[in-house]
Amino acid sequence: MTQMQSGALILSIVLSSHAALFAKDTDCAWKQTAVLNAPEAFQAAAADNRHVYAITNRTIAKYDRATQRLVARSEGDAHHLNSGFLHEGKLYCAHSSYPLKPESSIIKVLDLKTMQLSDFHDFGHSVHGSLTVALFKDNAWWCVFAVYGKEENARTALVKFDQAWNEKQVWTFPESVVSDLGSSSISGGIWWDDKFLATGHDKKVLYRLKLPQTGTVLEHLATCETPFPGQGIAIDPETGGLVGINRKNRQVVFAETVPSKKPQ
Asked: Residues of the signal sequence (predicted)?
């Protein structure tokens, strides 16, 4: 084999591997089904069966799903809210002091009746970075701590805590994901069955990952095209799809798989 042939073979393998990560299967094809105009659609969105929640840095706005009218805005201190997660009738939001140094992180909780925002758990100055995702699954809290900058964001991590907030395990994101983030980091994430769907800062993609059987690096299964350009996402219980945002358009964006497939 000549040097040119060898180089062509290596390039072919790389391109084939890259294409495989963009495989279009039924878990990895998302289409926009609806939008809701909301000036607060800047960081993330969440939804229940009656309302949609648009999240900006300091405020969470509650909208009626049927009329798309603003119902209420949150009250309470916040500096940099990130993604939101509905759990047992309350909205839990990742929150950090980013870009202030040293970085501190708190899970905020919103009472959906009073719209009062308060502290749920304070991580203090976490060694892992700035909190961008907080989820509850299988009697554990799963949190993403983002680290920013091309030289540093490989340290971005998914951290599992028990209900007493003891750190149980830490996973980092694979190079195939980190290299696609630029100088940004992971902005949103959800559990979809046993897969972890993560979003970056501004690209219209989801990174579909799973926990490795061994080791501490998440396994990258596919990169999926989506209608929302990064930021915080959540499962929409009304449709079984996802809800996210388009920051530029200040819209909450609803998306479903093709064909529609609800998480188990």
From this structure: 1-19
